[in-house]
Amino acid sequence: MTKERYKKIQGFSAKALILPAIIIIFALNAFVVMRTFLIDGLNSKTMASYENYLEYTRAADDLQNASNTLTDNARLYVSTGTMAFIDAYFKEYSDEYNGKNREKAVETLKKSNNTSAVHSLEQALETSNLLVYIELKAMKLRAVADFGYNVDLSAYPELDAIELDAKYASSTAQDKRTDARELVNGEEYGAKKTLITEYTAQARDLILEATNGEYNEYSRRMKNSLMMQFVLVILLSIIIIIVFALLLLSLILPLTDNVTKIENGEKLQENVGLKEIRLLATSYNELLKNKNLLEQNLRSLAHTDALTGLPNRLAFTHILAGDYEDKKITGSAAFFSFDVNDLKLINDTGGHLQGDNLLRSAAKCILDCFGNDKGDNCFRFGGDEFAAFLSPVSVNEIAARMERFELIQAQNNIRIACGYAFSEDMSDVTPQELFKQADDRMYEQKMQMKKHPTCDLDNKKE
Length: 462
Hints:
Shape: elongated
Oligomer: single chain
Number of helices: 15
Distance between the termini: 82 Å
Structural class: alpha+beta
Strand order of the largest sheet: 4-5-3-6
């Protein structure tokens, strides 16, 4: 074969087709990677928006609950004259024992920059403060009725500063008690309590509206990004197929035709081209493999908690939506809500690494006691918050798992508040309602555990 002939054949080699194809494929792959990071960012924003929604609605609930606490203690004191209710009242009213939850709720909501919701909560606080004056007046009236005008209320400066109308100087103690009860049980007082409920409900509605707006925007952008991602992947696949077809027509078939010449003893340089085809096939397989790994890692990243390895909040939303393994949840089911105790204390005293170890141990404990064969029914959906789901399940099975749960906690020196809710037929209740019941019961147990701690920090460190 002459040198001129060799150069002519080399002019139609695969290199002339592969080089531009590699450039195009690399560019498209870069776009796919960029879109992957964009989708991941949108997913993070969606999760952050949901966490903010929980924080801000909890703030509205805190104001409502704190106002109710003040009302309950004021009414109880006015009705019974027991000084312990005054102490309980001022624990919430002041900074003592982590009080002032009404004011803290407003400050928390201000972080949302939702001026309408903040305004509604501020109105609720303002109305609550009007009730505080009535409550203080009623409590002062009851104290004077019981102990006279010389009663020592210096321990409660706000109460001591209340001045009673002159008409009460000549009224009987019983009249004073009756008037005190009327102050905190009358129509004016009740109307203001209703206003507080309306204002806090309005704040929650505004928070939900803003969150839905963010969610819809993020969903729209994610949908567009996924569509673009799909188009890019399809386009990438089409280009690879076209390049392979061009190589087949321009190189492989001519080389196959030359096999006859090789069998006849003629040596051809085109066998180098055959090696290029083998390299191209290898590159294509590697590209496809990398693409599949990328998609698999993306799915795993989107549904798995990095610290514990459990499914995350996003995975749990599918359960709350009523779907499990792409099927509608039917028959018997149980939801479990967990909250790891002492995490903040461990973080503050032992460091965040020890706190992370506590969370991993808690996750293993929950998975060992409530996990199924696949391990996909236990979730970490918050800092120290976990959940589990079982279906189908019986009451006896739940009792056995709970008994094992208590035993494992004791063995690992972990304290986890747990609440569960069970339904024999999921057609009678929604997953959200059932989990809400479990969550409420968990918080009840958590409050009991705080009142009756069973282990100290040194035990936690061990």
